[in-house]
Amino acid sequence: MGSAALLAGASALADTDASVVAPHDRIRLAFIGYGGRAAAHVAGFAARNDCELVAVCDVNQRQLEAGRQHIRTLTRTDPKTYLDMHDLLADRSLDAVIISTPDHWHTPAAIYACQAGKDVYVEKPVTNNVWEGRKLVEAARKYKRIVQVGTQNRSAPYNLAARDYLHSGKLGEIHLVRVYNQKYLGTVKMSSDGPQPDYLDWDKWQGPAPARPFNASRWTNWHDFWDYAGGDVTNDTVHQIDLACMALGIDALPRSVYAQGLARRGSDSQMPDTLAATFEFDNLIMTFNQTLYTPYMIKADMVVRNSDIFPHWPQDADRIEIFGSEAVMVLGRHGCGFQVFGRMKDRQPVVVAQQHGRFPDKEHQANFVDCVRSRKLPNADVQIGHRTAAMCHLANLSYRVGNQFLQVDPQTEQITNNEQAAKLMKPEYRAPYVIAENV
What we know:
By secondary structure, this protein is an alpha/beta fold. It has 2 domains: 3-153 and 362-381, Rossmann fold, CATH 3.40.50.720; 154-359 and 382-439, 2-Layer Sandwich (Dihydrodipicolinate Reductase, domain 2), CATH 3.30.360.10. The chain has helices at 3-8, 10-13, 36-46, 61-75, 85-89, 106-115, 130-142, 157-167, 202-206, 216-220, 231-235, 237-248, 302-305, 361-374, 382-400, 419-424, and strands at residues 27-32, 51-57, 80-82, 96-99, 119-122, 147-149, 174-182, 256-262, 274-281, 284-291, 319-324, 328-332, 338-341, 351-355, 406-409, 414-415. Strands 14-13-12-11-7-10-9-8-15-16 form a 10-stranded mixed sheet. Strands 3-2-1-4-5-6 form a 6-stranded parallel sheet, sandwiched between helices. β5 (119-122), α7 (130-142) and β6 form a beta-alpha-beta unit. α6 runs parallel beside α7 and α8 crosses α12 (237-248).
């Protein structure tokens, strides 16, 4: 179904239940990159009767076949398979793509998709540096594409309720918010360079990153290398920072960022496993603390996320604490709900307000489909995703240039006081996997 057909049917279908959408009105989806998150998206979109899963692309032939088999099992149809995303994007019958590649491919793939006239659902973090985020926003607007970022907390009803509670003023004046990302990740040991597997196109996998000999550690632990990612700051903390910004109504970059970090001894990861960052906004300070050596800090499992259970907040690995003059709100991501605590009474906690949650993948996917039809901006529009990812990148940049204080112009999105950090906002892209200045 093409864009004209989508627009023509928007008013009739925007409020229609997915179970009664006619086959010819289904949105034709393709998946670029097939792994853990892609498998979850395949399952989610396959459960919708208003979507048709027609293709999958991966440079790893084993992953490609796994994606094909998964779609076949769920839909009883045989999707097309592609090793090159440009071949997939050339299919004019496709309406939208779901991008779940390693992080360094998120923005290039999304820009290529916009240029090819496809709407996009792209996993977080939407970018691997600050500069390319602005380019993706420009591409989405220029080609009039819907670009939904996979920060699904923006579609969770309990998070919207938390936002409304804060905006009502019941928490009082708010000047401090603390964001946490605390868990345990093992150390990384660098293996020797060697021959690439015969089922993997290593050149395409590296894409815009610098060309390097195949190395199993780089391939399987790509989160730990600046070429491909920003560590757990961009991988996981992006959810908490984004949720905090949504709840508080923050819609601009901070005026300054200052991070201090430590790398774990005995690990070959390029990332800090201890990081403390401070973001300065108008009349608000947001702090972020990360520890990746703390196995007693627990990410809530799916039982907690999908039931009326609150985490044990002091050991919840990814909580947000919002301090008002009247009370404090503790907010959990991915379905963990929120609680508001007032002053203790008789040495016992006083819960002023609370709401349980549910894991919001379903709602976020539904919002994407609705926006493909209506052409309204999605809950996690690319501009929002770019800003949140940029905050994570700025914290990493402060660490990378030696724990330096960075001044930021929120309007131009430029670092104004550190030339080294400013240069790192835009890396060199390897031909032919480049992003043009004029997208």
